[in-house]
Amino acid sequence: MTATTTAPVSATSAVALTGVTKVYGRGTNAVLALDRVSLDVRPGEFVCLVGASGCGKSTLLNLVAGLDRPSGGDIAVADGAHPGLMFQEPALFPWLTVEANVEVPLKLRGTPRARRRERVAELLRTVHLADFGRKRPHELSGGMRQRVALARTLALDTPVLLMDEPFGALDAMTRDILHDELERIWTERNLTVLFVTHNVREAARLADRIILLSSRPGRIIWSTDVAVPRPRRIDSPEVAAIAAEVTDRLRAEVGRHAA
Amino acid sequence: MPRDTLTRTDAELSGLDALDIAGREKETSRAARIWAATWPKLAALALAVAIWQLVVFSGWKPPWSLPGPLVVGEELLRQAGSAQLWDGIAVTLRRAAVGYVFSVAVGLLVGLAVARSTVLRAAIGSMITALQTMPSIAWFPLAILLFELSEKAIFFVVVLGAAPSIANGVITGVDYVPPLLLRAGRNLGARGLTLYRYVIAPAALPAIVAGLKQGWAFSWRSLMAGELLVVGISQTSLGAQLTYARELADSPWLLSTMIVILVIGLVVDAVFGAADTAIRRRWGVLDQAGR
Q1: Considering the domain B64-283 in this protein, what is its CATH number?
Q2: Which of B13, B196, B200, B279 to mutate to test the interface with A (most CBs of A within 10 A)?
Q3: Where are the alpha helices (DSSP H) in B28-68?
Q4: What is the value of ipTM here, to two decimals?
């Protein structure tokens, strides 16, 4: 049995997965969710994982986040950093104000009160919600809640951001703007992002590299570097061309399961 | 990224935000809200009193066994001016408070222990529900055998009546904490005790308050049953006064005491109701339900 190691890996990767396997259940009911997945993410790289249902995308993020243990293989995060994880739902604490939500990771780390206040204000400015600190999550729109969740994750001060279809539940307009926002924050903060999505256009819009996972079991079957210069638009022909190529590969993979 | 892209995004964002949350804040005046909540209650009360008066007028029962609202109201006023009623309220409320506080302590501890431990849950989880369904008055024969006609017998039954509801509230609350919030909490660095403090306890609070409210109702009922049965040592408690009133065939006294018991129950229930509403408002559940 191997576990997540915190030892520094090679200087060239922020997240390194080596032969990671995940099995759920045991005996005849055992399901192989991930099969020997190996992946190196460079510091500052934006990697999108794309795959159809059942490809173990979310499982993979849970493993990297340390919320679950791999059945085999090894996961290393540079300098033992604790990655921040964002979900499709904002997962905000409904009993707390926006400010207090962002403050939770700071409190858990024992940051002094005055410093916490500064950090919360700075993070809310970063996601353009400086005026909404006293609101409660239910008073905000879906896109605003997701930005609060981003601010809360950034409060972890982690260089590695894991995002599990974070914009999947938003309308196209809001999603486009949040793509710009995420790109800006990623650049400003030198983040390494591992971003799961089933939306190939979103992947082509955001990623430095797109990785395609097969379904049942999840396995890396293809990857491509996205050389389109930034800033990008989701409706630009270059982005559309990449998206079309990924879609073809994805369809071929889904078709394999027809038999 | 070019500067103009940045400012464009900013403007778009605040525009979207303004559109998204427009019309979400509706304010009604405090007086209007209180009136809207009060008048149906007053109307129901007036209707109940009117029906009572009609039944008395109909001559269904002689006035010495069923007096009208006026007679009972006068008796209630007279009682309110005497020490006897207030002594009774003091004795009964002291018992209620002691029994309830002890029940809360037991219920919270047992509930938390069962919620945490699968072994304990398998062992006594269903027993707690079974205890909850047991009518508390059925415990009195045993309580009297164990503790004789004493305060202890009443206390025993009150705790047995209230603690299981409170424990069940805690168990339900902990069980129904959304797994997503637990994962978020763990990712933000909460572990063990801090996970309880920052995620599980606040997320379970609505169910715990519901359990506390139900526990109060059970303990109040058990207490009244106890005071009626264990009259010997009951001094001037409300339950004892009910028994004396019956023995003296003093129906105005009996009915006015019943009204006092009802009002105390309602007031305490309103306190729990206010706590429940405050929690739901904070969580935003009320807004979606249209208040």
Answers
A1: 1.10.3720.10
A2: B13
A3: 30-57
A4: 0.88
